[in-house]
Amino acid sequence: MQAVKHGFLGGLDARAFLARHWQKKPLLIRGAFPSFADPLTPREVLRLAGDPDASARLVQHRGKTWTLEHGPFSARALARLPKRDWTVLVQDTNHFSAAAASLLERFDFIPHARVDDLMVSYAVPGGTVGPHVDSYDVFLLQGHGRRRWQVSTRKDVRFVPGLPLKILQRFEAESEWELGPGDMLYLPPGVAHHGVATTECLTWSIGFRAPSDRELVGGFLDFLHDRLAPTGHYADPRAQAPRHAGEVPGEMVHHASKALRGIRWTQRDVAEFAGRFLSEPKAHVVFDPPEKPLSPSRFQARASRAGLVLDRRSRFFFSGRMFFMNGEALAAGGGARELRALADARALPGPVKAGAAFWRLAHGWYVQGFLHPGGGSAR
Fold first, then answer.
1. CA atoms of 265 and 281, how far apart (whole Å)
2. Structurally, how many domains does the chain consist of?
3. What's the rounded Cα separation, in Å, for the pair 133 and 136?
4. What's the pTM?
5. C-alpha span between 72 and 56 (Å, rounded)
6. Is residue 115 part of a domain?
7. Are residues 130 and 40 in the same domain?
């Protein structure tokens, strides 16, 4: 396991942090990122909240009254907001900003398949989303301004009824801190927390995926449905007149049970499903193919010299010799070493020396907008 870059885990390396804190207990790290520079300014965050390709929300509160609106938001609408008690949240800032993507990559001591996104919260004084609990791990990195955090490990997840947000009915803080630029708070799943802006501020949330068993089981059943091709049909050549016409025949139940018992899958099937499921982009993500794509030969000439970089929206993983790009699976016929390096680092520096099979695959992904020659934009 690699050591953590720049020691932003409070003097712990990755191994120690994972053993002592990951999914176990909170950790406050003062000065985790000294001289931290926000990937986006407050003005840029609010401008991004008006981008139709971005996923943005506006939360306002007055006393016990809460409102939730979904973007995009015009500059005029945001300018009409009061001076207190609101916050704008923008998901997936790593898709829109190279600096945001670079910040997210600093957390690569957690597998890429577990990473969700880098969300930013812009808040005016008093801005908050209320006391709540998340089902996933999160690092809360304070940027511009200051925010007060209260934390409770008590297990009481009853929510206030009738609200557009899942706000806890009862929240009794056990710990409280005010975070300034560069400070960071790690929270494992299930730890209740309440953050309130004490000044205008930006808070960056490094969130991790934690699929529910319901999602996994439902997704796997969909995966099996697409792969199975049962050919039988129910038949009852010895049918007799029923005593109750409204009763489901036991023979039909038996036939269904027999068909279901015939379903089989292997560990390889599960691995393929997991790779497809975890690499599937979010529903709102759209890729931008090049307007004038390079020919295969010109693409190879440029990329072999300058290298390759994944598009910031791409999710690319591997399991053994199987590779998964944005929900699609393939078995590497060649270039497995280069593909693994690309999945690990999200880039391949030049010069790239690979076989024809690798370049055919890379060019196909380039045409779809999934990756780009090095030196070009990652989006």
1. 25
2. 2
3. 9
4. 0.91
5. 6
6. yes
7. yes
Q: Residue 128 falls within a domain, yes or no?
A: yes
Q: Which of 182, 204, 179 is nearest to 93 (CA)?
A: 204
Classified as helix, coil or strand, 71 is: coil
DSSP, collapsed to helix, strand or coil, labels residue 322 as strand
> Is residue 372 a contact partner of residue 309, using CB atoms and an 8 Å limit?
yes
Q: Are residues 200 and 277 in the same domain?
A: no
Same structural domain, 159 and 292: no
Whole-number Å distance between alpha carbons of 379 and 377: 5
- 303: domain CATH number? 3.40.366.30
* 246 located within any domain: no
The string of DSSP letters for 267-278 reads HHHHHHHHHHHH
Cα 47 from Cα 171, distance rounded (Å): 34
Q: How far is CA 140 from CA 42, 206, 356, in A?
A: 17, 7, 44
Instruction: Identify any residues that bridge with 226 across adjacent strands, giving them in sequence order.
Output: none
What tens-digit pLDDT sequence spans the chain (379 residues)?
344 444 799 889 999 999 999 999 999 999 999 999 999 999 999 999 999 999 999 999 998 999 999 999 999 999 999 999 999 999 999 999 999 999 999 999 999 999 999 999 999 999 999 999 999 999 999 999 999 999 999 888 899 999 999 999 999 999 999 999 999 999 999 999 999 999 999 999 999 999 999 999 999 999 998 888 777 888 988 888 989 999 999 999 999 998 888 888 999 999 999 999 999 999 999 999 999 999 999 999 999 999 999 999 999 999 999 999 999 999 887 899 999 999 999 999 999 999 999 999 999 999 999 999 986 555 6
